[in-house]
Write the structure tokens for this entry.
Amino acid sequence: MKKRTFLKNSSLALFGISLTPLMACSEGKNTGNKNPKVESLSTPPTFDLPKLAFDFDALEPNIDAKTM
């Protein structure tokens, strides 16, 4: 590969990589449509942990119930 070709391809790749985050950030701006998947920042998300298939003290020799 020639030096000129390498520099041209490298600069184009760098330019494309640097524009990708800017395009992603401006994607939802000024469209007037609110994305239903985006929740309000004032309400924190809630997480539900699944029930364990065993009691808290089942791992007692290695992990105590207080740690669980």
Observations:
- The mean pLDDT is 75.
- The CA atoms of residues 7 and 28 lie 34 Å apart.
- The first helix runs from residue 3 to 25.
